[in-house]
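Lecture 7 notes. Example A: sequence first, then its structure tokens.
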Amino acid sequence: VAKDLALPLAKLREHELSILDKGRTQYFSLHGKTGHLVMVERIDREQVCESAQQCVLRCEVIVEGEV
């Protein structure tokens, strides 16, 4: 996420970041030391996507303050 925002990791820590997943389960989080998007919950494809050919999980990264 830090790389995608073109921010040094130290600068990224200055902003409050939130990860919003679509749905009830929070599958992703932001690792504070590396700036990587990480999984916090195991994803059961059959439960999440049922019989869909392609399974896509969408999330939004919200950054507080100016970037």
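Example B, a different protein, same format:
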Amino acid sequence: RCEEEDVEMTEDAYAVLTRIGLETSLRYAMQLITAASLVARKRKGAEVGVEDIKRVYSLFLDESRSTQYMREYQEAFLFNELREHRGTFWGAP
């Protein structure tokens, strides 16, 4: 994928990205490549490094971390308030 997007990456960054892919999904890891490339370009780096991968990993959640976040903060979301005030989400008593 890096070759296709013309992204240069350090060996350490490849290792971190590989581990992320193994622990999450290949799709998620591939999506981080583009974002990490943009972060590296913004800092005027010649190649994507571990810090660039860490940065985008902290900004974009994979499915598992997204689900965990939703469970932890579900009480703060609007749909919960609607359910409390109307009985159910769809407004039925």
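Note on Example B: The first helix runs from residue 2 to 5. The mean pLDDT is 85.
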